[in-house]
Amino acid sequence: MQNVAIILAGGSGNRFGSETPKQFLSVAGKQIIEYSIDAFENCPLIDEIGIVCKAEYIAHVEALVRKNRYTKVKQIIPGGKERYDSTLAAIEAYPDDDTNLLFHDGVRPFVSERIIRDCIEALKQYNAVGVAVKTTDTIVSVDTNECIDTILHRAVLRNVQTPQCFKRGLIKQAYDLAMQDPDFTTTDDCGVIRRYLPQEPVYMVNGEHTNIKITYPEDLLILDRLIQQRKMTNNIL
Q1: pLDDT, tens only, 191-225
Q2: Burial status of residue 93 (CB atoms within 10 A of its CB: 0-12, 13-18, 19 or more)
Q3: How far apart are the first and last CA of the chain?
Q4: % helix / strand / coil in the chain, to the nearest 5?
Q5: DSSP letters along 41-95, please?
Q6: 41-100 pLDDT, tens per residue?
Q7: What are phi and psi of 166, to 5 degrees?
């Protein structure tokens, strides 16, 4: 059973407000995507890495792979317009239904080896596995007048992270159904399982608050702080 990490790096970063996609921005001497690739390259349970990016950035990613001498990166796959297009491209690139595919945001640079290991362990029992942390804020739904409609019970709420992990055959089956739905839309692969294969349980591994997603410019300050803390810890050890 192969464990393949899929780094999703096809985003344009419109919300970020930068001409350069945020996964290719440099923080503390490395591009954000390099930190994300490092996490899977250095995990002994990962057999292979595939990177999905826009066609115009393939040469750029190839240069990063050469520079860092990544031995596990075997495929650089052109993505599409939407996030799910990137997922579909990766599914097609790995045709063996028994492969474990671990889809990870290229802009989540601090995923830990513990999270990766727990996901792979969970895939021994489940066909779909996600990562999440407990919600710390009170979450409300609002009505059309922007007034509180419902206060949701915080104890059962989670903030979803990545990787999101699947047996290839299962995620392929779910997307085959989704592509037949004229109203299909999604930003989350676990959500595709829940919508089109609702009988299939999606197990949630405990995430970590340091497994942040770079979404806004101020997130770069948090990332830089985490990098400096890691360097200090490594120097102490």
Answers
A1: 999 999 999 999 999 999 999 999 999 999 999 99
A2: middle
A3: 35
A4: 40, 25, 40
A5: HT-TT--EEEEEE-GGGHHHHHHHHHHHT-SSEEEEEE--SSHHHHHHHHHHH--
A6: 999 999 999 999 999 999 999 999 999 999 999 999 998 888 899 999 999 999 999 999
A7: -150, 150
Q: How far apart are CA 160 and CA 211, in angstroms?
A: 10
Q: 222: number of CA atoms within 13 Å, CB side?
A: 15
Domain that holds residue 72: 3-236
Tokens, residue 99: 């492969």
Distance of alpha carbon 66 from alpha carbon 43, whole angstroms? 19
Residue at token pair 């063996």: 96
CB under 8 Å to 21, separation ≥6 — which residues?
A: 9, 11, 12, 13, 54, 57
- Is residue 10 within 8 A of residue 79, CB to CB? The reply is yes
In whole angstroms, give the CA distance from residue 211 to residue 14.
Answer: 21
Count: domains in the chain: 1
Q: Does residue 62 contact residue 33 with C-beta atoms inside 8 Å?
A: no
Q: What residue type is assigned to position 178 of the chain?
A: A
Q: Which residues in the chain belong to E strands, given as ranges?
A: 3-9, 26-27, 30-31, 48-53, 73-78, 100-105, 128-134, 140-142, 148-151, 158-167, 203-206
Q: What distance in Å separates the CA atoms of residue 94 and residue 126, rounded to the nearest whole number? A: 20
